[in-house]
Design brief:
This protein is α/β, with parallel strands linked by helices. It folds into three domains: 1-83, no CATH class; 87-179, Beta-Lactamase (2-Layer Sandwich); 187-390, 3-Layer(aba) Sandwich (Rossmann fold), CATH 3.40.50.300. 36% of the residues lie in helices and 20% in strands. The chain has helices spanning 3-11, 20-33, 48-62, 68-83, 89-92, 126-137, 187-193, 198-209, 224-232, 275-282, 299-308, 323-336, 341-351; strands spanning 97-103, 108-112, 115-118, 150-154, 160-164, 174-178, 214-218, 241-245, 257-261, 289-292, 315-319, 354-360, 366-375, 384-390. An eight-stranded mixed β-sheet has the order 9-8-10-11-7-12-13-14, with helices on both faces. A six-stranded antiparallel β-sheet has the order 3-2-1-6-5-4, covered by helices on one side. Helix 11 links the parallel strand 10 and strand 11 (315-319).
Length: 394
């Protein structure tokens, strides 16, 4: 399919236009579809600014007379169809939605206010889902096709997108989008909602002030990043903090911060820069603290080396339901990096101090459930923790 045909298909309206207003809208859609400036020479999707300009020209040339709200909705729908994710793009504008999950063309779910919900949104077919993903990952230099049937991308607004094509997903393309709220939480606000009670918050603030290494753990969407943001806000102006992330989720409010971001491989599979690469680079940047948005693998060993060489007060997050499970996961990462189990446990025992575990209540509310400190092992046994605080009830 040519780029022009792709544009026309994206703008196609099912059914016939009945009213004069609908006919006028249809003429705008056709004019935008035929705009030669939307068809890039390389056949790639048009960029957002180009789409907006084309829509503005079409509306002006057709002399569309619509109420301001309807006109704005028309422009937004056209931009979504040509440079966004089509029918699911409005979900990304909903502040209550944190996750959007497309399970094939005819099944779209969201997580709204902590609760998983189905939606009535549908795509015309599997090709439309694939095309929607290509529109947003293409400008990033990424691909999604038979040769590369999955993609992981950070969108310009900071959202994270993952997509998987058949035959890896037999039911059709599976797309998962994770939004990151722009709201800056405060200790007082989280105490008022019961998410982080004041006694637990005081323990964590004291840990940061004492330059103790803190790990925030929990399952997806439990608030690990929110808590890490607040902990970063407790770091003083006399400390230089290097923050390393895959995507810019953290919004550190500490005075002296340097941000580093990983880079995925390009369409040819080259040029990737990993968290481990950036941790090693950060050691040459005179950091007082190194903060890794999330440790998932062998980069843990470099973080432990940083702790061992005097960079106290490092912080990170890890996927685990409780403090004990977090330590087991971290042991596994160290083993993957080639450390023998006794050495892995010894380094974790020396390097880690406090683990803060987050979870969800029965009603979907998120919050802190446990604060524990890593204690000395008995002989060569597993790492142990001593609970400092635990939530009694939601």
């Amino acid at each position: 399919m040519t780029a022009a045909a792709t544009v026309a298909a994206a703008l196609a309206v099912p059914g016939g236009a009945a009213s004069a207003g609908a006919l006028q809208v249809e003429r705008v859609r056709r004019r935008v579809a035929e705009d030669p400036q939307l068809v890039n020479r390389d056949g790639s999707a048009p960029v957002l600014a180009t789409v907006r300009s084309a829509v503005a020209r079409a509306v002006r040339e057709e002399g569309v007379l619509l109420p301001a709200a309807e006109l704005a909705a028309l422009v937004r729908d056209l931009v979504d169809a040509l440079a966004g994710l089509g029918p699911v793009q409005p979900l990304l504008r909903d502040p209550a939605v944190t996750d959007v999950m497309v399970n094939g063309a005819d099944e779209v779910w969201v997580e709204r206010d902590g609760v998983l919900q189905p939606t009535a949104i549908r795509f015309p077919d599997a090709a439309a889902v694939h095309a929607a993903v290509l529109r947003v990952v293409g400008p990033l230099g990424l691909r999604l096709d038979r040769a590369q049937p999955f993609v992981d991308a950070r969108l310009p607004d900071g959202s994270r997108l993952h997509a998987l094509l058949p035959p890896l997903a037999p039911g059709g393309p599976v797309v998962t989008l994770r939004k990151f709220a722009a709201v800056s939480h405060t200790w007082a606000a989280l105490a008022d909602t019961g998410a982080v009670p004041e006694p637990a918050a005081a323990m964590l603030r004291e840990a940061v002030a004492a330059r103790r290494a803190v790990v925030c753990c929990g399952r997806t969407g439990t608030g690990k990043t929110t808590l890490l943001n607040l902990l970063l806000g407790e770091v003083g102006a006399d400390e230089r903090v290097v923050v390393i992330e895959d995507a810019p989720e953290l919004r550190p409010r500490c005075p002296h911060v340097v941000r580093l971001e990983t880079r995925p491989p390009n369409a040819e599979g080259a040029g990737a820069v990993s968290v481990r690469d950036l941790v090693r680079q950060s050691l040459r940047m005179r950091p007082d603290r190194i903060v890794v948005g999330e440790v998932r693998g062998v980069e843990l060993v470099d973080v432990l080396q940083a702790l061992a060489t005097g960079h106290e007060g490092c912080m990170t997050t890890v996927h685990a339901r409780a403090a004990e499970e977090a330590l087991v996961r971290l042991e596994g990462m160290a083993l993957l990096a080639g450390l023998p189990l006794p050495a892995a446990r010894a380094q974790l025992e020396v390097g880690l101090d406090v683990v803060a575990a987050l979870g969800r209540g029965p009603d979907g509310r998120r919050g802190l459930v446990q604060v524990a400190e890593v204690t000395a092992r008995g002989g060569d046994g597993p790492l142990r923790v001593r609970e400092l605080w635990r939530r009694s009830a939601w």
